Amino acid sequence: MTQPNTPQFNDIGATAPKAHGHFLDSMQLPSGVTRFWLIRHAIVEATARLRVYGSLDVELCSEHLALQVPYYTALGRRLPDEANWVVSPLKRAQDTAKAIFAAGYGARTLTIEPRLTEQSMGEWHNLPHEELPMKLRQTAHNFWSLSASEQPPGGESMLDVCARVGHALDEMADHHAGQDTVVVSHGGAIRAALSHALNVHPDTGLRFSIQNLSLSIIERINGVWRVVTVNELPTAPSVE
């Protein structure tokens, strides 16, 4: 429920009352903002992690799923109760959302958005990680498997990923103005979202660390994107 005198924002109109510079001067995020809560999926199973899996549909690690239930609970408590839920078409993202639901958040309807999937590595899918450098035609990024402009045969570059993710975010922001949207996606796609929000080249956006189960928050206010938080990790409650 909206508290009295809480500033109300929307993506297309004025604020009432107007917030000076849209500063976040309290610990509570104001309601009525076009806001996206970006979550990277949980860790995948061990054999998949040995190879380049990119946009392949790989399973989550069942052992981690069982051990990390308190983190799913904590993550669910951090998220808004009233939100649209959007996931990539890959099972690991959908299963992560369902794990959050099962850990206390409660079931919600999931909308699948193909543009929020992970970077396609094309013919380089399933390569052992140690063999990938021999395939590259450009110097790899310091914090990614390849440079942002490198396009695997039959795949896509991070420039491509940033374009499709940015288009999806702009479209969803138009359709869900003034609402919260939780997106369960992937490390590359979330870096692309941050690049789009900051209007920077994906090579710069790839410098962000996006860990499994981390939360990043972006907002669009009056047509302009901003970043609220990046790679926020859930904290499990301490055991007495």
TrEMBL record:
> Which SMART domains does this chain map to?
PGAM
Lineage, top-rank taxon, reads: Bacteria
Entries under Gene3D superfamilies matching the protein? Phosphoglycerate mutase-like (3.40.50.1240)
- Pfam family, any one: His_Phos_1
Q: What is this protein called?
A: Phosphoglycerate mutase
Species classification: Bacteria, Pseudomonadati, Pseudomonadota, Alphaproteobacteria, Acetobacterales
